[in-house]
């Protein structure tokens, strides 16, 4: 009877990088490997054969045609690095004198030096620093022979096992008493040594701690490891020269590849404005969004442009031409008057695109206005008193994180206003945890228990009136915060969802307040800011073309939305012959005829992204399908998630040399696009410390040091903070609760007669009391 294939787990002993790209099976007494990409089975040849298969080494068997290019390139570099090391070893072996004594065979990795301070602090090296093993034999590093000459006569009584020291470089090799003391290459000590080296580099150059989250860090470490011991670091000239040049060419190719996607799905030109406080510099960053990826095009010094709408229009037109006017669906900027004037001129110049104010900026202004309400502002301040007390005392922070399973009670988002309401939501989620904390023995034994601010924190957490106010704020503003998250979403284009989300937000306010005189106060604020979205046709068309919402909307609601759709068709489809074909296809969609009415398409309305739904089921209505994909593939925000404050855009314009200015411009081009690429691979879990300097722009008011915090008590000692494994608070997809049923005609009827009235009246203060 033939043995069966038995899966084998990957063990720490299998250090070759190719093991990560294959499945391992046991077949009798032998191991077989299967390629993860093309599924080819290897019955012999070991991992080397698999690596050559993945790396595309010709003449060494079948080459994998499905392996990702970055994996193929990396494994090829690993193979080339191995060949170089073998050549070096053969050369050094042939040059080694025969008179050197042989050391006992042992398993060890290439030498690693340890800084003197590490040895003094009890650091244990992960491996021998003087012994290198090659194919069952050992040798000494040639440049260490002079200091190892004493081995000819055995160990000296005064060296205590030390093989030698390097006084010139302040490096200390590690003592070896026997083969048992050699640490396995995969050990924690070895990893810690690598991490210490990375830390010293980042600390020494003043880099942000967020650098360790770079998608390029691990590939760099792997590339260094594959290069072997002695691989040299790039020089200053290398970085400014051929390395930067290669990265610019690589990034330019990636941007060029996006143009094919822009043609199919359309794209949005995003305009970001950055201002410098110390020199008055204003910079405009231009990016292009499509569902596959967002790319950075360039930045421009706009200090003298923003004050002149005509100059701003010329700049916008230049960017539209660079992208391709037939690809651009919308240009998104801030909503200020100079942008509005330039945007209107742009729409006159190009009849097939829209200028749209940033929806995220509009929604953030709504949140800011809501936060100014007296009862909401008071609730926020009481919550801030809790967070300021906790986050300025390390021992209290330890207690809090213990009871919240490592979760923080502050939740930084896009802006200070959004952070306020997101943090109130987080505090409400952790209410039971905080209440358990202030009744725990740990808190009752704390030295801070009887401080005035400690007593105030305990009283607030025990106060049900506070929690009732927090719940009311979340009920009122939480749905608007969801609209903002949808508009800024990096997971899916927001165009097909933002109208439905805003509908739900107004519906929730009406449901909670009931009386029209109460809920209209808040609706007026929403309507006033939303009216700044002068070209809401795209949002209405997105709602109409999203099958998740369209088929559950009332006839009156559909009638409102179809006007927006027709406006978009007439503007975005300039060919009148194609426009005339939309009538029949629209009828098929509205009445769910043909494929649209099949059970598979009906079930997919709630499970597929709307653009994917049209791509899958819309081929019978080809013109409408292509149009729907272009609309539903757009974003609603000019903001992107990468941390722009860490990209030195202003350095470009501080340089007065034209050559260096161009070099810095290319550097920013590479940096920005690398940050954007990293966003694609991030899981979305927030790992940054809320006390990090990079978060102070939105969290300052929540972690600001309170007056009662006294450093002399040792309560601000960061070294005493304990590491707690984080148990993530479960989050729900923002679109899951948008639901079905849009049948309230009052919600999107703008109250024109009150548009010019004040934002709030006394009614707003008592609406939730």
TrEMBL record:
Keywords: DNA-binding, Metal-binding, Nucleus, Zinc, Zinc-finger
Residues in BED-type domain copies: 13-71
Pfam families to which the protein is assigned, alphabetical: Dimer_Tnp_hAT, DUF659
Superkingdom of origin: Eukaryota
Transmembrane region(s): none
Example of a GO MF term: zinc ion binding
Main location: nucleus
Localisation: Nucleus
Organism of this sequence: Brassica campestris
GO cellular component, as recorded: nucleus
Protein name per its UniProtKB record: BED-type domain-containing protein
Family matches, as InterPro entries: DUF659, HATC_C_dom, RNaseH-like_sf, Znf_BED
